[in-house]
User: Which sequence fits this backbone?
């Protein structure tokens, strides 16, 4: 029986090729996007699935009660909280403390490579069950200056040589003994590292002043992470109470820092809430919910379109159903037949969707955001099973209404003719849903046009400095003066400056400034620069003078400020500020030697706060080269060749300032790609829904059109007659979409300090595109109906 149903369903799909293609195409596009979303969501739920005892595992997180910013919750915490909780409270079975400041260049023989990782205690490995290779030390963290490498790093830099027992130098930190190799887990993990170093090392490095103090610092809650395994039967509230007691004791007399602690279950970290200082990079829970909601909207819209087209087609199949009922077919049999057609259509759409997914995945995987969160889709059997179930559910939801409707038709009425069938005489719901689809389409299109204009505006805006012909070379901890001396030998290099940051890309350091000790501190940003910075960057000096050439690198005497700083400190004008002394960072007294015009030193979407330029060469991280006479490959080749004399270990890292700025804003390209894809999808879904309604409308009005043509109506009047209702829907959709699009886009534009104008031109362009596609869709049916021979129309009825 089922075989006959399937055979009949397959024949009907082939019989109505045009209808089947539209349905399969529409469902396939929607399903491919939903499948992509399913892949991303499942991928994010696979984090740390190898970790045991997750029901008793928690992370201690922090709340900065003194914060002035929107983000007050942090995944990180203070380092000494670990020992305080372990020694004073008998609630914890095990605990792992992590410090994420392990960063430097590893040197072994003539090889030099980047090392990023954690300082961890001995509990880290067994709590999270990271597996060591057989030749690793039994207790790899027994001694200080012990280091564990990942098998990937070991293979990359040691090859077939056994690294266990060898010594690895990390910059100025010292020599580390390799005591273990940890296997890279096949599962995704929030813990991403190249190496692990014994936490005992951290204390020794602090004592030797090679790293900043954290082990007994209750004010630093930015670089440490504490995971605890609570004892069986221990109440969650007891630990929360202990954390509250510790917070109260440690911060009761501190007027500047006040931190409270709370627990987060390990299972709820990924995906989790959006918080600061997350240890890894992954999608927050709110984004997962958004993706899930988006996929639901997409598939419901696609299912509605299938339903709409199926109901329209039922006019052509009514007599078939009438004949089948006359010869004894039951209502259940007809429902099964039409449901199987819908499910089979969905399965065909699934196959097509899977093919589309192979084209979509590389595009999304290549996006910076996707590569950053390391989405690695694994299309295994379980994934295919989910896809198949998804197709079955989609087919059922799409086909149930047409199946129920057509199975309920009276054989007598359908055999009389289609004019006797009342097919959804009240189509208000369908119109509302169609208008809603076009509202979404208009909002998407208007948004993507605005985002595209915003990206171009930010990339090409005048930032207040000369970004052309400046080449940034990353120091990679090399001495700036050494680099400057080498590059000064290249004739095409006009000037060289040292700096801590690349301007215009969002990287900034915070500080505070005031005139007198009793004054309230004012927040400010700062760049570390030298005496050539203003000239190299083409920044305008409006008062005072530049740094002198003979400044001491050890003592900070002068600073240069911008106009915002002059205003914030209530100086009369720029000239009034020159020569005045201010206090920076609690105790450093410096004299304002010059004032520069405000410039966009940070990202275009961020506001510029008071900025101070400080002469602190120890903080230099880049050398900015002003190239004279234009750019050529030969000059870049000279710069790269000189690097070989400067640093024989690290590969050269350099880029043009303009290219760095453009690359920084390329994240907006990801947004444009995503929203553009959503816009195209929304248009396709809306137009397919419109096609269904237009098809239904022309089929139900076949006799009316024929009569009008007999009485002299021309093609134009018939087209206008049929299209009038849809034009009204476009107008209604536009009336709803315009204020919504304006409100939604202004909501995010208000957080961007420098944004492109958002006006009538953007809105009109978006509306025009949607109406154009809509009218083409309507015309495909109305022109066909209007040009039909009246005799055929009347014979049809």
Assistant:
């Amino acid at each position: 029986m089922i075989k006959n149903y399937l055979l009949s369903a397959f024949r009907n799909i082939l019989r109505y090729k045009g209808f089947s293609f539209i349905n399969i195409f529409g469902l396939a596009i929607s399903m491919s996007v939903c499948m992509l979303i399913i892949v991303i969501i499942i991928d994010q739920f696979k984090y740390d699935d190898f970790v045991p005892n997750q029901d008793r595992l928690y992370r201690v997180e922090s709340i900065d009660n003194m914060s002035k910013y929107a983000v007050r919750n942090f995944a990180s915490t203070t380092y000494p909280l670990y020992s305080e909780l372990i020694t004073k409270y008998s609630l914890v079975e095990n605990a792992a403390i992590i410090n994420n400041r392990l960063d430097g260049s590893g040197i072994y023989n003539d090889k030099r490579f980047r090392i990023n990782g954690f300082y961890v205690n001995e509990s880290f490995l067994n709590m999270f069950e990271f597996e060591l290779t057989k030749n690793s030390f039994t207790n790899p963290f027994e001694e200080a200056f012990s280091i564990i490498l990942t098998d990937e790093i070991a293979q990359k830099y040691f090859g077939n040589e056994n690294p266990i027992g060898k010594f690895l130098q990390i910059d100025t930190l010292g020599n580390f003994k390799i005591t273990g190799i940890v296997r890279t887990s096949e599962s995704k993990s929030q813990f991403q590292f190249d190496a692990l170093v014994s936490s005992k090392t951290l204390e020794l490095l602090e004592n030797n002043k090679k790293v900043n103090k954290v082990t007994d610092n209750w004010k630093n809650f930015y670089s440490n992470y504490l995971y605890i395994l609570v004892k069986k039967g221990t109440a969650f509230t007891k630990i929360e109470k202990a954390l509250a007691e510790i917070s109260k004791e440690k911060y009761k007399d501190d007027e500047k820092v006040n931190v409270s602690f709370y627990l987060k279950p390990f299972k709820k970290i990924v995906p989790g809430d959006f918080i600061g200082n997350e240890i890894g990079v992954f999608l927050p829970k709110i984004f997962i919910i958004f993706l899930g909601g988006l996929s639901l909207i997409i598939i419901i819209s696609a299912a509605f379109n299938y339903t709409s087209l199926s109901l329209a087609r039922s006019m052509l199949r009514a007599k078939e159903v009438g004949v089948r009922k006359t010869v004894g077919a039951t209502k259940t049999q007809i429902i099964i037949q039409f449901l199987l057609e819908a499910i089979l259509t969905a399965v065909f759409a699934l196959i097509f969707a899977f093919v589309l997914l192979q084209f979509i995945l590389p595009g999304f995987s290549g996006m910076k955001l996707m590569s950053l969160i390391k989405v690695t889709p694994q299309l295994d059997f379980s994934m295919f099973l989910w896809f198949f179930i998804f197709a079955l559910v989609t087919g059922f939801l799409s086909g149930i209404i047409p199946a129920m409707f057509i199975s309920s038709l009276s054989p007598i009425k359908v055999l009389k003719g289609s004019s006797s069938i009342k097919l959804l005489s009240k189509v208000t719901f369908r119109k509302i849903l169609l208008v809603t689809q076009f509202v979404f389409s208009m909002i998407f299109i208007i948004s993507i046009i605005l985002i595209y204009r915003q990206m171009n505006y930010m990339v090409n805006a005048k930032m207040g400095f000369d970004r052309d012909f400046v080449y940034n070379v990353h120091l990679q901890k090399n001495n700036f003066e050494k680099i400057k001396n080498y590059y000064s030998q290249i004739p095409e290099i006009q000037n060289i400056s040292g700096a801590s940051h690349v301007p215009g890309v969002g990287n900034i350091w915070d500080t505070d400034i005031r005139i007198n000790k009793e004054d309230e501190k004012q927040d400010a940003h700062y760049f570390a620069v030298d005496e050539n910075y203003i000239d190299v960057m083409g920044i305008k000096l409006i008062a005072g003078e530049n740094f002198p050439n003979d400044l001491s690198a050890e003592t900070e005497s002068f600073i240069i400020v911008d106009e915002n700083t002059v205003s914030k400190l209530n100086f009369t004008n720029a000239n009034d500020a020159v020569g005045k002394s201010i206090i920076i960072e609690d105790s450093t007294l410096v004299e304002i030697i010059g004032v520069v015009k405000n410039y966009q030193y940070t990202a275009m979407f961020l506001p510029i706060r008071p900025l101070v330029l400080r002469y602190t060469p120890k903080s230099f991280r880049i050398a900015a080269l002003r190239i004279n006479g234009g750019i050529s490959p030969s000059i870049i080749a000279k710069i790269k060749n000189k690097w070989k004399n400067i640093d024989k270990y690290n590969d050269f890292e350099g880029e043009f300032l303009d290219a760095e700025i453009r690359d920084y804003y390329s994240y907006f390209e990801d947004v444009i790609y995503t929203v553009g894809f959503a816009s195209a999808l929304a248009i396709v879904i809306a137009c397919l829904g419109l096609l269904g309604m237009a098809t239904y409308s022309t089929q139900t009005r076949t006799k009316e059109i024929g009569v009008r043509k007999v009485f002299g109506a021309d093609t134009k009047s018939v087209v206008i007659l049929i299209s009038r209702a849809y034009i009204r829907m476009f107008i209604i959709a536009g009336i709803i979409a315009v204020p919504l699009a304006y409100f939604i886009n202004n909501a995010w534009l208000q957080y961007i300090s420098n944004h492109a104008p958002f006006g009538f031109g953007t809105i009109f362009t978006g509306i025009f595109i949607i109406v154009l596609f809509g009218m083409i869709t309507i015309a495909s049916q109305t022109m066909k109906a209007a040009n039909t021979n009246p005799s055929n129309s009347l014979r049809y009825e």
